[in-house]
Amino acid sequence: MPVTDVKQDLDNLTLTITADFSAPVERVWQVYADPRQLEKIWGPPGYPATVVDHNLAPGGRMTYFMTGPEGEKYAGYWEVATVDRPRSFSFADGFADEDFNPTPELPVSENVYTFAEHDGGTRATYVSTFESADALQKVLDMGVVEGATSAIGQIDDLLASS
Prior knowledge:
Residues 23-159 form the Activator of Hsp90 ATPase homologue 1/2-like C-terminal domain. It contains five helices and eight strands, in the order ββααββββββααα. The chain is an alpha+beta fold.
């Protein structure tokens, strides 16, 4: 399992996940830059993602849905703010309805994903910031830590298969 650390900080409204991969930074970057690769890791096991739109550029938008074991669909979106290929990107990540309109009653997180050389591979740091402690607690209660760590755990298999 590549996840090496998970920190929940209700005071600073952040969730930080750190993972180490035995692949170069550029290769890990490609997982997020290529929508077909992203589909293989964005949803946790049993909830595969389908990327509908993918524009990993400042001002770009990415829309997707995950399909559960019973066929239920969960939609979401990214609104990309910054991109520093292959080192980092930032984006707002939110829940959406079936037409990819934001779902206002569910939290939106501001995210910064960074990739740096580390011990011959890549250290990825995923930082999600929420507007309130209640918003962070809501996604924690929804199982975001388990979902995110299991989704990130799929990256090793994807890297090994290419």
